[in-house]
Every structure is written in C-alpha cells, then in structure tokens.
Amino acid sequence: MRSRIKLSKRLEKVSSYLPRGAFFADIGSDHAYLPCFICMHDSAAKAIAGEINEGPARSAIDNVNLYGLSDVVDVRLGDGLHILKMDEINQLVIAGMGGALIKSILEEGAGKLDSVQRIIAQPNIDARSVRRWFLENGFTVTNEEIVDDNGHIYEIIVADKGEVSSPYVSNMKDKQLLFGPLLLKNKTKAFYKKWNAEYEKLQFVINQMKEANVQNLEKIERFEMELKWIKEVL
Ligand code: SAM
Q1: Which residue of 37, 51, 182, 185 is surrounded by the most CB atoms within 10 Å?
Q2: Could you tell me if the CB of 125 is within 6 A of ligand 1?
Q3: Segment holding 23, helix H or strand E
C-alpha cells in the first residue's frame, strides 16, 4: 500500500499558506513532496513542480507516479519561472534556497507573475533580499513565520499582490527588511534563537575584519549598524 507523505515541519508550514483549490507552482521542487502532499489532501488543487536539475526532476516524476497524481501534478524540467506559460498559476512557492536565488528567479520570471496572487517564499538565508523584492514589485507581506525545525531556524514569508496597508514604516524600513516587519511585532522563541546566533556570528566577522591588514571601513560600519539593530531587538 502507498504510504502517505509526511512533510517536515518547515514544508508543512509552507504548505499551510496555500488556499484550498490552489493552482500553484513549486519552483525548485526537488522530490515534489509539497505538490504531492497538497494534491493528495485537496482534490481541487493542481500543481506544477519545476526543477532545474535532472536528478531531482526524476525523483519528482517517480513520486508523482508512485502516488498516482500525474493528472494533477505536472513536473517540468527547467530554470525558474521559464517553465510556466502565461497566466497558468495563482500561487507560487519557492522554498529551501538562498534569498538571492529566490530574488533572481522572481526577477527573471516577473513577466509570468500577472496571474499570481500569492507568493510563499522560504529563504534559507538572506530573507531581506526577498522582502525587498516584494516591496519593490507590488507584493505586500501578509504573513511571516519563523520555524524551529529540529534545531534549524527557517523564515517563511507570504506576500499577496497589491499594496493595501503596507507593514513598512518609512523610518523603520531598513530594520523591518532585515528582521521581517511582522516577525518584529511578535517576537517568538525561534526569533530570539535566530538573532542571538546571528549576533554572535556578526560580532565574530566584525572582529576578524578589524584585524585585517586592509580594512573595509564602509563594510565594517554597515555591519556595526546591523549589530546595533540586533542588540536593540533582543
Ligand atoms: N523546495 C524543496 C524544499 O524546500 O524542500 C527543495 C529545496 S532544494 C534545497 C532546492 C532545489 O531547487 C534543488 O532541487 C535545486 O535543483 C532546485 N533549483 C535551484 N535553482 C533552481 C532554478 N533556478 N530553477 C528551478 N529549480 C532550481
């Protein structure tokens, strides 16, 4: 008998932000667990699993076949949003990559986002790049979550199309982009865990930079400012 998919806590949280009956793409889907899980539990949902690498795309196809979901989960091999046709999806998931890569996938595929109402991003690092892209491209952060999954801390950012009630305040914007405008309002245990660790890391980096023969003063100053911000939120 086919076993049911058990998602990690991180992917389960990501999946919880898709509405019932979603028609979505999961870019960088790897094993396609997320689209399979959603379509298994929601008979109205449909998904496209995008993968740039052949190995993961193969395991995505194998899983889709194993779970008998080939009518509702379409695995496509290719780069970012290039695998999509115009107006094909209403929601987009990009999880488990760095923020800079997520941002470049959004940037390069911006022409495919006309029909997309919601983007759920889970950057492993540099969430700030993703928030900034949302801010500059007409998507409003409507939910943010910080998850402790087996000792690893992950940020999930949900952004909806439209700019009604922006969470950003002009004199706080840079700080909000770093920590997350909504995460800052509700600082959880995972938030403190992440930013305590980031504080230690940044302090170490600054000390190393100060000991270098040639010092990048501009960078040291920027990092010291961020260190001050972190101290303020802790
Ligand atoms: N999304 C899954 C998750 O969160 O568990 C898998 C994350 S996995 C670490 C990242 C996947 O993204 C890899 O399978 C990689 O091949 C794929 N990937 C990286 N860049 C991509 C791109 N430009 N377009 C599509 N897939 C990409």
Answers
A1: 51
A2: no
A3: strand 23-27
* Pairwise CA distance, residues 229 & 185, whole Å: 15
Q: Are 5 and 41 in contact (CB under 8 A)?
A: no
- Give the three-state DSSP class for 44: coil
Index of the ligand 1 atom closest to the CA of residue 14: 4
Residue that the structure tokens 């040639």 belong to:
214
pLDDT tens, residue order, the chain (234 aa): 456 889 999 999 999 999 999 999 999 999 999 999 999 999 999 999 999 999 999 999 999 999 999 999 999 999 999 999 999 999 999 999 999 999 999 999 999 999 999 999 999 999 999 999 999 999 999 999 999 999 999 999 999 999 777 899 989 999 999 999 999 999 999 999 999 999 999 999 999 999 999 899 999 999 999 999 999 999
Rounded to whole angstroms, the Cα distance separating 112 from 84 reads 7
Does ligand 1 have an atom closer than 6 angstroms to the CB of 51? yes
| 140/215 Cα distance (integer angstroms) | 38
| Strand runs labelled E in 60-198 | 73-77, 91-97, 118-123, 139-149, 152-161
- Is the Cβ–Cβ distance between 90 and 18 less than 8 Å? no
Distance 146 CA to ligand 1 centre (A): 20
Cα–ligand 1 centroid distance for 30 (angstroms): 6
pTM to 2 decimal places: 0.95
* Integer Cα distance of 229 and 128 in angstroms: 14
